[in-house]
Amino acid sequence: MMAKLILSMDGLVLKEISLSKERTTIGRRSHNDIQIDNLAISGEHAAVVSILDDSFLEDLNSTNGTLVNGQPIKKHFLKNNDVIELGKYKLKYIVEQAAPGETGRFERPPVRPAAGRPAPAAAPAVAPVAPGAAAIRLLNGGNAGRQLDLTKAQTSLGKPGVQVAVIARQALGYVVTHVEGAQFPVVNGQPVGAQPHPLRDRDVIEIAGVRMEFFLKA
Length: 218
Fold this sequence. Notes:
Layout: E1 2-9, E2 12-18, E3 23-27, E4 34-35, E5 46-51, E6 54-59, E7 66-68, E8 71-73, E9 75-77, E10 83-86, E11 89-96, E12 134-138, E13 147-149, E14 154-159, E15 163-170, E16 173-180, E17 186-187, E18 190-191, E19 197-198, E20 204-207, E21 210-216
Parallel strand pairs: 3-4
Antiparallel strand pairs: 1-2, 1-11, 3-5, 5-6, 6-9, 7-8, 7-10, 10-11, 12-13, 12-21, 14-15, 15-16, 16-19, 17-18, 17-20, 20-21
């Protein structure tokens, strides 16, 4: 599935914005991903955070506030057809199915069994870099068994307001970095602290109570 926002004013559609980033900012200033040049809109008004197939709207302490379906919000879990209101402007949240063969941000790839995968002769200090060469497999919860390919430079994981971490692809390999929350991510049973932590093949990561296995793809 793919998610997008449709910006309109007085019933006139102004543009469509695909939620292709982990964080999409909305505001009056030009550096925002969605710029709305209107004095009723704060410089940094709101943001949409997308994690796996969920999107959360957060009001960034705007002057005039943010409404969803007519109700003021601070943080809101977005559902299909929700209408975000900022002054006279409206942003409709739409989730649509990806076309066959299209690689979408919310695509659910097939589960690949771990059985039969040969163990590496020696675990490297950090994972070697290759675009799309690594993935995570969820080990518990309702999505247990689901696999997510790490094809982007940064992949956000966790629950906004509780605990959020990012797995990032860097020059020397993949690292996990704490972003939000009182608890740090746990790798192989040990909290990683505030600094980026290098990931190795078969590391088990726990973020916001969700356990997942990081692995290199053959």
